[in-house]
Amino acid sequence: MDGPGPSTQANAASRALRAARRASGEADKSAQESQSAQSPQRRQPEDDSSDEEDESSDDEDDGEEKKPIHHHEIWKKLLRKGSMGGRLRYVNRQPDTGNHPLDITAVESTQITWDLTDRRFWPKNLTLWKRPTPWNNPTYEIGVMKYKGRVVLDCHKNPIRNFRIPLTISSKVEGLRVESWLRSDDRLALADIEARVWTKVNDKGKTVPTFDKRALSKRASNARTRAGLISWLPKKGRDPQTAFMDRLRTQAQIDRNLATDKDLTSEQKANYALIGLNENKKSEAPTRENRIKKIKRTAGAGVTVAGPSSAAANAGPSDSVATASGDDDDLTEAVHETHIRDQDSEDDTEDEASTSSSLIDPLDARHDQPTNPQEEALLRGALANTVQHFLSLTGQEPVLTDPGDNYFSQWGMLQEQLRVLWAAGGNAIEAPRLIARERWTGGISQYYLAEEIEEVADDDESE
Protein backbone atom coordinates (compact mmCIF):
# COMPACT_ATOMS: atom_id res chain seq x y z
CA MET A 1 0.00 0.00 0.00
CA ASP A 2 1.06 3.56 -0.60
CA GLY A 3 -0.03 4.75 2.82
CA PRO A 4 -2.43 7.54 3.71
CA GLY A 5 -3.13 10.20 1.14
CA PRO A 6 -2.27 13.90 1.40
CA SER A 7 -5.55 14.93 3.03
CA THR A 8 -5.24 12.24 5.71
CA GLN A 9 -1.63 13.25 6.31
CA ALA A 10 -2.61 16.89 6.61
CA ASN A 11 -5.38 16.14 9.09
CA ALA A 12 -3.05 14.04 11.22
CA ALA A 13 -0.44 16.77 11.14
CA SER A 14 -3.03 19.36 12.15
CA ARG A 15 -4.10 17.25 15.12
CA ALA A 16 -0.47 16.80 16.15
CA LEU A 17 0.11 20.54 15.96
CA ARG A 18 -2.96 21.31 18.11
CA ALA A 19 -1.92 18.69 20.64
CA ALA A 20 1.61 20.11 20.79
CA ARG A 21 0.28 23.61 21.36
CA ARG A 22 -2.08 22.40 24.11
CA ALA A 23 0.75 20.51 25.77
CA SER A 24 2.97 23.57 25.56
CA GLY A 25 0.29 25.83 27.04
CA GLU A 26 -0.54 23.43 29.88
CA ALA A 27 3.13 22.99 30.72
CA ASP A 28 3.66 26.74 30.77
CA LYS A 29 0.64 27.29 33.02
CA SER A 30 1.72 24.56 35.41
CA ALA A 31 5.25 25.93 35.62
CA GLN A 32 4.00 29.45 36.27
CA GLU A 33 1.62 28.31 39.05
CA SER A 34 4.36 26.25 40.68
CA GLN A 35 6.82 29.13 40.56
CA SER A 36 4.25 31.58 41.95
CA ALA A 37 3.40 29.28 44.84
CA GLN A 38 7.02 28.77 45.83
CA SER A 39 8.28 32.34 45.45
CA PRO A 40 5.54 34.85 44.57
CA GLN A 41 7.86 37.89 44.79
CA ARG A 42 10.81 36.40 42.90
CA ARG A 43 11.32 36.75 39.15
CA GLN A 44 13.15 33.96 37.37
CA PRO A 45 16.25 35.36 35.58
CA GLU A 46 16.49 34.96 31.81
CA ASP A 47 18.88 32.27 30.67
CA ASP A 48 19.70 32.43 26.98
CA SER A 49 21.94 29.37 27.18
CA SER A 50 19.26 26.95 28.30
CA ASP A 51 17.96 24.42 25.80
CA GLU A 52 14.75 23.97 27.78
CA GLU A 53 13.08 27.20 26.76
CA ASP A 54 9.54 28.38 26.29
CA GLU A 55 9.14 28.11 22.51
CA SER A 56 5.68 29.66 22.60
CA SER A 57 6.80 33.05 23.91
CA ASP A 58 10.31 33.55 22.56
CA ASP A 59 9.25 36.35 20.23
CA GLU A 60 7.08 38.26 22.69
CA ASP A 61 8.10 41.85 23.33
CA ASP A 62 7.58 43.36 26.79
CA GLY A 63 8.19 46.88 25.44
CA GLU A 64 11.72 47.09 26.82
CA GLU A 65 14.37 47.91 24.23
CA LYS A 66 16.88 45.07 24.03
CA LYS A 67 20.11 44.54 22.15
CA PRO A 68 19.67 42.77 18.77
CA ILE A 69 21.05 39.28 18.33
CA HIS A 70 22.47 37.55 15.25
CA HIS A 71 20.59 34.66 13.68
CA HIS A 72 23.59 32.32 13.60
CA GLU A 73 24.20 32.88 17.32
CA ILE A 74 20.84 31.35 18.24
CA TRP A 75 20.62 28.75 15.48
CA LYS A 76 20.16 25.80 17.83
CA LYS A 77 17.47 27.62 19.80
CA LEU A 78 15.61 28.48 16.61
CA LEU A 79 15.69 24.83 15.56
CA ARG A 80 14.12 23.90 18.88
CA LYS A 81 11.55 26.68 18.61
CA GLY A 82 10.48 25.48 15.15
CA SER A 83 9.87 21.96 16.44
CA MET A 84 8.15 23.28 19.59
CA GLY A 85 10.76 21.63 21.77
CA GLY A 86 10.79 18.42 19.76
CA ARG A 87 7.03 17.92 19.79
CA LEU A 88 6.55 18.74 16.09
CA ARG A 89 8.25 17.14 13.10
CA TYR A 90 7.86 16.68 9.36
CA VAL A 91 5.37 13.93 8.56
CA ASN A 92 6.47 12.47 5.22
CA ARG A 93 10.10 13.44 4.66
CA GLN A 94 12.70 15.49 6.46
CA PRO A 95 14.12 18.28 4.23
CA ASP A 96 17.62 17.66 2.92
CA THR A 97 20.36 18.44 5.44
CA GLY A 98 24.01 19.44 5.26
CA ASN A 99 27.05 17.62 6.61
CA HIS A 100 27.06 19.44 9.95
CA PRO A 101 24.56 17.92 12.43
CA LEU A 102 22.91 21.33 12.92
CA ASP A 103 22.77 22.23 9.21
CA ILE A 104 19.03 21.55 9.19
CA THR A 105 15.90 23.23 7.85
CA ALA A 106 13.72 23.90 10.88
CA VAL A 107 10.21 22.54 11.19
CA GLU A 108 7.55 24.91 9.83
CA SER A 109 4.08 23.92 11.01
CA THR A 110 2.36 24.91 7.75
CA GLN A 111 4.71 22.70 5.69
CA ILE A 112 5.09 19.52 7.71
CA THR A 113 3.32 17.34 5.09
CA TRP A 114 5.61 18.38 2.24
CA ASP A 115 7.69 15.78 0.43
CA LEU A 116 9.39 17.23 -2.63
CA THR A 117 10.46 13.80 -3.90
CA ASP A 118 6.80 12.73 -4.24
CA ARG A 119 4.42 14.85 -6.31
CA ARG A 120 1.46 13.67 -4.19
CA PHE A 121 2.81 15.73 -1.31
CA TRP A 122 3.92 18.82 -3.19
CA PRO A 123 2.54 22.21 -2.13
CA LYS A 124 -0.25 23.19 -4.52
CA ASN A 125 1.60 26.17 -5.99
CA LEU A 126 4.20 23.83 -7.52
CA THR A 127 1.52 22.08 -9.56
CA LEU A 128 0.33 25.29 -11.26
CA TRP A 129 1.53 26.55 -14.62
CA LYS A 130 1.39 30.27 -13.92
CA ARG A 131 0.28 32.55 -11.12
CA PRO A 132 -3.52 32.50 -10.79
CA THR A 133 -5.39 35.71 -11.49
CA PRO A 134 -6.49 37.47 -9.47
CA TRP A 135 -3.67 36.78 -7.03
CA ASN A 136 -3.91 37.64 -3.35
CA ASN A 137 -0.86 37.63 -1.10
CA PRO A 138 -1.20 36.40 2.48
CA THR A 139 -2.60 39.19 4.60
CA TYR A 140 -0.57 38.76 7.77
CA GLU A 141 1.71 41.60 8.84
CA ILE A 142 5.31 40.66 8.24
CA GLY A 143 7.20 42.63 10.89
CA VAL A 144 10.67 41.52 11.98
CA MET A 145 11.85 38.31 13.59
CA LYS A 146 12.36 38.57 17.34
CA TYR A 147 13.77 36.25 19.95
CA LYS A 148 12.91 36.98 23.58
CA GLY A 149 12.09 40.54 22.57
CA ARG A 150 15.40 40.99 20.73
CA VAL A 151 15.44 41.78 17.00
CA VAL A 152 17.17 39.00 15.07
CA LEU A 153 19.79 40.16 12.53
CA ASP A 154 21.26 38.32 9.58
CA CYS A 155 25.03 38.07 9.18
CA HIS A 156 25.00 41.41 7.32
CA LYS A 157 23.42 43.05 10.39
CA ASN A 158 20.04 43.55 8.71
CA PRO A 159 16.82 42.74 10.62
CA ILE A 160 15.28 39.52 9.33
CA ARG A 161 11.72 39.88 8.08
CA ASN A 162 9.28 37.57 9.83
CA PHE A 163 7.85 35.51 6.97
CA ARG A 164 6.21 32.15 7.57
CA ILE A 165 9.06 30.05 6.28
CA PRO A 166 11.37 27.88 8.42
CA LEU A 167 13.36 29.77 11.06
CA THR A 168 16.57 28.06 9.90
CA ILE A 169 17.37 26.86 6.38
CA SER A 170 19.93 24.20 5.53
CA SER A 171 22.70 24.81 3.02
CA LYS A 172 21.24 21.81 1.15
CA VAL A 173 17.74 23.26 0.87
CA GLU A 174 15.98 21.82 -2.15
CA GLY A 175 15.39 24.03 -5.16
CA LEU A 176 11.68 23.18 -5.28
CA ARG A 177 11.29 24.21 -1.65
CA VAL A 178 12.82 27.61 -2.45
CA GLU A 179 10.58 27.92 -5.51
CA SER A 180 7.44 27.18 -3.51
CA TRP A 181 8.35 29.78 -0.87
CA LEU A 182 8.87 32.40 -3.58
CA ARG A 183 5.56 31.55 -5.23
CA SER A 184 3.65 31.73 -1.96
CA ASP A 185 4.10 35.45 -1.31
CA ASP A 186 5.11 38.28 -3.67
CA ARG A 187 6.57 40.14 -0.71
CA LEU A 188 9.15 37.41 -0.07
CA ALA A 189 12.54 37.87 -1.76
CA LEU A 190 15.59 35.64 -2.13
CA ALA A 191 17.36 37.88 0.40
CA ASP A 192 14.78 36.83 3.02
CA ILE A 193 15.70 33.19 2.42
CA GLU A 194 19.43 33.89 2.37
CA ALA A 195 19.09 35.59 5.77
CA ARG A 196 18.15 32.23 7.38
CA VAL A 197 20.65 29.98 5.57
CA TRP A 198 23.39 28.04 7.36
CA THR A 199 26.53 30.15 7.64
CA LYS A 200 30.28 29.69 7.47
CA VAL A 201 33.33 31.75 8.41
CA ASN A 202 35.27 32.97 5.37
CA ASP A 203 39.02 33.49 5.08
CA LYS A 204 38.64 37.03 6.41
CA GLY A 205 37.06 35.76 9.60
CA LYS A 206 33.57 37.00 8.70
CA THR A 207 30.38 35.02 9.04
CA VAL A 208 28.66 34.71 5.66
CA PRO A 209 25.86 32.54 4.22
CA THR A 210 27.02 29.30 2.61
CA PHE A 211 24.58 30.06 -0.21
CA ASP A 212 23.86 33.59 -1.38
CA LYS A 213 20.73 34.66 -3.22
CA ARG A 214 22.35 34.16 -6.64
CA ALA A 215 23.11 30.53 -5.85
CA LEU A 216 19.64 30.02 -4.35
CA SER A 217 18.11 31.37 -7.56
CA LYS A 218 20.16 28.96 -9.65
CA ARG A 219 19.11 26.08 -7.42
CA ALA A 220 15.43 26.94 -7.81
CA SER A 221 15.86 27.43 -11.56
CA ASN A 222 17.49 24.02 -12.06
CA ALA A 223 14.79 22.31 -9.99
CA ARG A 224 12.03 24.01 -11.98
CA THR A 225 13.53 22.82 -15.23
CA ARG A 226 13.78 19.21 -14.13
CA ALA A 227 10.14 19.30 -13.03
CA GLY A 228 8.82 20.99 -16.18
CA LEU A 229 7.93 24.24 -14.43
CA ILE A 230 8.44 27.85 -15.47
CA SER A 231 9.24 30.92 -13.44
CA TRP A 232 6.23 32.95 -12.36
CA LEU A 233 8.33 36.07 -12.85
CA PRO A 234 8.28 37.14 -16.51
CA LYS A 235 11.74 37.65 -17.92
CA LYS A 236 12.90 39.00 -21.25
CA GLY A 237 14.29 36.42 -23.63
CA ARG A 238 12.70 33.39 -21.93
CA ASP A 239 9.84 32.86 -24.41
CA PRO A 240 11.51 29.89 -26.21
CA GLN A 241 12.06 28.09 -22.89
CA THR A 242 8.47 28.76 -21.81
CA ALA A 243 7.12 27.51 -25.13
CA PHE A 244 9.18 24.30 -24.77
CA MET A 245 7.66 23.56 -21.36
CA ASP A 246 4.17 24.48 -22.59
CA ARG A 247 4.36 21.79 -25.28
CA LEU A 248 4.82 19.15 -22.54
CA ARG A 249 1.35 19.82 -21.11
CA THR A 250 -1.85 17.98 -22.02
CA GLN A 251 -4.98 19.85 -23.05
CA ALA A 252 -6.59 19.00 -19.72
CA GLN A 253 -3.63 20.54 -17.88
CA ILE A 254 -3.79 23.64 -20.06
CA ASP A 255 -7.50 24.05 -19.32
CA ARG A 256 -6.88 23.83 -15.54
CA ASN A 257 -3.72 26.00 -15.42
CA LEU A 258 -1.60 23.01 -14.43
CA ALA A 259 2.01 22.29 -15.28
CA THR A 260 3.09 18.91 -16.57
CA ASP A 261 2.99 16.20 -13.92
CA LYS A 262 6.10 14.42 -15.20
CA ASP A 263 9.78 15.22 -14.89
CA LEU A 264 11.71 15.86 -18.09
CA THR A 265 13.32 12.85 -19.73
CA SER A 266 17.02 12.81 -20.52
CA GLU A 267 16.28 13.62 -24.16
CA GLN A 268 14.00 16.51 -23.20
CA LYS A 269 16.66 17.90 -20.86
CA ALA A 270 19.24 17.76 -23.63
CA ASN A 271 16.92 19.53 -26.09
CA TYR A 272 16.01 22.16 -23.53
CA ALA A 273 19.70 22.83 -22.83
CA LEU A 274 20.29 23.66 -26.49
CA ILE A 275 17.71 26.45 -26.57
CA GLY A 276 19.40 29.76 -27.28
CA LEU A 277 22.79 28.38 -28.28
CA ASN A 278 24.23 29.56 -31.57
CA GLU A 279 22.99 26.98 -34.06
CA ASN A 280 25.21 28.29 -36.88
CA LYS A 281 28.40 27.68 -34.93
CA LYS A 282 27.55 24.23 -33.56
CA SER A 283 28.56 22.68 -36.87
CA GLU A 284 31.93 24.41 -36.65
CA ALA A 285 32.96 22.48 -33.54
CA PRO A 286 35.89 20.12 -34.30
CA THR A 287 35.16 16.44 -34.72
CA ARG A 288 36.42 13.82 -32.28
CA GLU A 289 39.12 12.83 -34.76
CA ASN A 290 40.41 16.40 -35.14
CA ARG A 291 40.42 16.90 -31.38
CA ILE A 292 42.54 13.78 -30.82
CA LYS A 293 44.98 14.88 -33.53
CA LYS A 294 45.33 18.28 -31.85
CA ILE A 295 46.05 16.65 -28.48
CA LYS A 296 48.70 14.41 -30.02
CA ARG A 297 50.31 17.38 -31.76
CA THR A 298 50.44 19.20 -28.43
CA ALA A 299 52.04 16.21 -26.75
CA GLY A 300 54.46 15.75 -29.63
CA ALA A 301 55.61 19.34 -29.31
CA GLY A 302 56.94 18.58 -25.84
CA VAL A 303 54.27 20.46 -23.93
CA THR A 304 53.79 18.99 -20.48
CA VAL A 305 50.15 18.23 -19.85
CA ALA A 306 49.48 17.01 -16.31
CA GLY A 307 46.47 15.04 -15.21
CA PRO A 308 44.33 16.36 -12.36
CA SER A 309 46.00 16.24 -8.96
CA SER A 310 44.34 14.78 -5.89
CA ALA A 311 43.62 18.28 -4.64
CA ALA A 312 41.93 19.17 -7.88
CA ALA A 313 40.01 15.92 -7.81
CA ASN A 314 38.51 16.79 -4.46
CA ALA A 315 37.56 20.40 -5.06
CA GLY A 316 36.98 22.95 -7.73
CA PRO A 317 37.25 22.49 -11.47
CA SER A 318 37.85 18.75 -11.22
CA ASP A 319 34.41 18.39 -9.64
CA SER A 320 31.10 18.85 -11.42
CA VAL A 321 30.63 22.37 -10.14
CA ALA A 322 28.81 23.64 -13.20
CA THR A 323 25.64 25.56 -12.44
CA ALA A 324 22.94 26.99 -14.60
CA SER A 325 22.05 30.60 -14.81
CA GLY A 326 18.45 31.64 -14.89
CA ASP A 327 18.45 33.92 -11.85
CA ASP A 328 14.93 35.01 -11.04
CA ASP A 329 15.66 38.11 -9.01
CA ASP A 330 17.14 41.43 -10.09
CA LEU A 331 20.49 39.86 -10.91
CA THR A 332 21.66 39.86 -14.52
CA GLU A 333 21.30 36.53 -16.30
CA ALA A 334 24.76 35.95 -17.68
CA VAL A 335 24.52 32.49 -19.24
CA HIS A 336 21.79 30.24 -20.51
CA GLU A 337 20.38 27.64 -18.18
CA THR A 338 22.26 24.64 -19.49
CA HIS A 339 23.15 22.57 -16.45
CA ILE A 340 20.37 20.16 -15.50
CA ARG A 341 21.24 17.33 -13.15
CA ASP A 342 19.41 14.03 -13.06
CA GLN A 343 16.58 13.68 -10.56
CA ASP A 344 18.42 11.10 -8.50
CA SER A 345 21.57 13.21 -8.19
CA GLU A 346 22.32 16.14 -5.92
CA ASP A 347 19.66 18.82 -6.11
CA ASP A 348 21.89 21.16 -8.08
CA THR A 349 25.07 23.08 -7.42
CA GLU A 350 27.85 21.06 -5.86
CA ASP A 351 30.06 23.92 -4.75
CA GLU A 352 31.40 25.10 -1.42
CA ALA A 353 27.94 26.02 -0.23
CA SER A 354 26.80 22.41 -0.37
CA THR A 355 29.33 21.21 2.19
CA SER A 356 30.06 21.93 5.78
CA SER A 357 32.32 24.94 6.22
CA SER A 358 34.78 22.70 8.04
CA LEU A 359 35.46 20.84 4.76
CA ILE A 360 36.32 23.97 2.79
CA ASP A 361 39.91 25.13 2.45
CA PRO A 362 39.58 28.77 3.61
CA LEU A 363 42.92 29.70 1.98
CA ASP A 364 41.98 28.48 -1.50
CA ALA A 365 41.42 31.66 -3.49
CA ARG A 366 39.25 29.82 -6.01
CA HIS A 367 36.45 30.18 -3.44
CA ASP A 368 36.84 33.96 -3.25
CA GLN A 369 34.04 36.13 -4.62
CA PRO A 370 35.28 39.25 -6.45
CA THR A 371 34.33 42.38 -4.51
CA ASN A 372 35.10 45.05 -7.11
CA PRO A 373 35.63 45.49 -10.88
CA GLN A 374 39.39 45.08 -10.48
CA GLU A 375 39.01 41.63 -8.96
CA GLU A 376 36.46 40.69 -11.63
CA ALA A 377 39.05 41.63 -14.27
CA LEU A 378 41.69 39.53 -12.48
CA LEU A 379 39.38 36.51 -12.56
CA ARG A 380 38.88 37.00 -16.28
CA GLY A 381 42.63 36.79 -16.54
CA ALA A 382 42.67 33.62 -14.48
CA LEU A 383 40.09 32.09 -16.83
CA ALA A 384 41.70 33.28 -20.06
CA ASN A 385 43.47 29.98 -20.63
CA THR A 386 40.20 28.11 -20.11
CA VAL A 387 38.40 30.34 -22.61
CA GLN A 388 41.19 29.86 -25.15
CA HIS A 389 40.99 26.10 -24.71
CA PHE A 390 37.22 26.26 -25.22
CA LEU A 391 37.73 28.25 -28.44
CA SER A 392 40.27 25.78 -29.78
CA LEU A 393 37.93 22.84 -29.13
CA THR A 394 34.69 24.35 -30.42
CA GLY A 395 35.66 27.07 -32.85
CA GLN A 396 33.48 29.61 -31.07
CA GLU A 397 33.59 31.94 -28.10
CA PRO A 398 31.69 30.74 -24.99
CA VAL A 399 28.69 32.57 -23.60
CA LEU A 400 29.94 35.05 -21.02
CA THR A 401 29.93 33.84 -17.43
CA ASP A 402 28.83 35.92 -14.46
CA PRO A 403 31.84 38.09 -13.46
CA GLY A 404 30.54 38.25 -9.89
CA ASP A 405 30.94 34.50 -9.37
CA ASN A 406 34.05 32.85 -7.99
CA TYR A 407 36.56 30.88 -10.05
CA PHE A 408 34.89 27.53 -9.38
CA SER A 409 31.49 28.68 -10.64
CA GLN A 410 32.75 30.42 -13.76
CA TRP A 411 35.00 27.52 -14.74
CA GLY A 412 32.08 25.13 -14.20
CA MET A 413 29.80 27.17 -16.44
CA LEU A 414 32.39 27.08 -19.22
CA GLN A 415 32.77 23.32 -18.83
CA GLU A 416 29.01 22.84 -19.01
CA GLN A 417 28.76 24.87 -22.19
CA LEU A 418 31.44 22.65 -23.70
CA ARG A 419 29.57 19.52 -22.64
CA VAL A 420 26.39 20.67 -24.40
CA LEU A 421 28.18 21.66 -27.62
CA TRP A 422 30.22 18.47 -27.57
CA ALA A 423 27.11 16.30 -27.37
CA ALA A 424 25.36 18.38 -30.05
CA GLY A 425 28.29 17.71 -32.39
CA GLY A 426 27.56 13.98 -32.29
CA ASN A 427 30.60 13.00 -30.20
CA ALA A 428 30.09 9.64 -28.52
CA ILE A 429 32.71 10.17 -25.83
CA GLU A 430 32.48 12.57 -22.92
CA ALA A 431 33.59 16.16 -23.49
CA PRO A 432 37.23 16.79 -22.51
CA ARG A 433 37.96 18.71 -19.34
CA LEU A 434 38.95 22.29 -19.97
CA ILE A 435 42.23 23.69 -18.76
CA ALA A 436 41.92 24.76 -15.14
CA ARG A 437 44.06 26.23 -12.42
CA GLU A 438 44.96 24.32 -9.30
CA ARG A 439 44.67 25.76 -5.81
CA TRP A 440 46.31 29.10 -5.12
CA THR A 441 46.45 31.29 -2.04
CA GLY A 442 46.85 34.97 -1.26
CA GLY A 443 43.67 36.21 -2.92
CA ILE A 444 42.37 36.48 -6.47
CA SER A 445 45.31 38.62 -7.62
CA GLN A 446 47.75 35.72 -7.08
CA TYR A 447 46.13 33.41 -9.64
CA TYR A 448 49.28 33.31 -11.78
CA LEU A 449 50.97 31.25 -9.05
CA ALA A 450 48.69 28.28 -9.71
CA GLU A 451 49.65 25.43 -11.98
CA GLU A 452 47.45 24.58 -14.94
CA ILE A 453 45.85 21.17 -15.30
CA GLU A 454 44.22 19.60 -18.33
CA GLU A 455 42.73 16.16 -18.78
CA VAL A 456 43.89 14.41 -21.95
CA ALA A 457 42.16 11.57 -23.81
CA ASP A 458 43.68 8.14 -23.32
CA ASP A 459 45.44 6.51 -26.28
CA ASP A 460 42.76 3.83 -26.60
CA GLU A 461 40.13 6.51 -27.30
CA SER A 462 41.78 7.26 -30.62
CA GLU A 463 41.26 3.76 -31.94
Question: Class by helix and strand content?
Answer: mainly alpha
Gyration radius, rounded? 25 Å
Q: Helicity, in percent?
A: 25-40%
Strands in their spatial order, largest beta sheet: 1-3-2
Euclidean distance between termini CA atoms? 52 Å
SSE arrangement, N to C: HEHEEHHEEHHHHHHHHHHEE
In DSSP terms, counting alpha (H) and pi (I) runs of 4 or more, how many helices? 14
Largest sheet: 3 strands, mixed
Report the β-strand fraction as a percent range.
under 5%
How many strands?
7
Q: What is the approximate shape?
A: globular
Segments where pLDDT lies below 50 for 5+ residues? 33-57, 281-285, 301-359, 454-463
What would the average pLDDT be, to the nearest integer? Answer: 74
Please describe the structure with a list of short key phrases separated by commas or semicolons.
463 residues; mainly alpha; three-stranded mixed beta sheet
Could you explain how this protein is built, in words?
The chain has 463 residues and is mostly helical. It is 33% helix and 4% strand. The chain contains 14 helices and seven strands. The chain has helices spanning 6-38, 75-82, 175-184, 190-194, 213-227, 239-246, 251-255, 266-273, 279-282, 288-300, 310-314, 373-382, 384-394, 407-424; strands at residues 69-70, 146-147, 150-153, 199-201, 207-209, 436-437, 452-453. Strands 1-3-2 form a three-stranded mixed β-sheet, with no helix packed on it. The chain has a two-stranded antiparallel ribbon with strand order 4-5. Strands 6-7 form a two-stranded antiparallel ribbon. A hairpin with a 2-residue loop joins strand 2 and strand 3 (150-153). Helix 3 crosses helix 5. The radius of gyration is 25 Å and the shape is globular. 34% of the residues are buried.
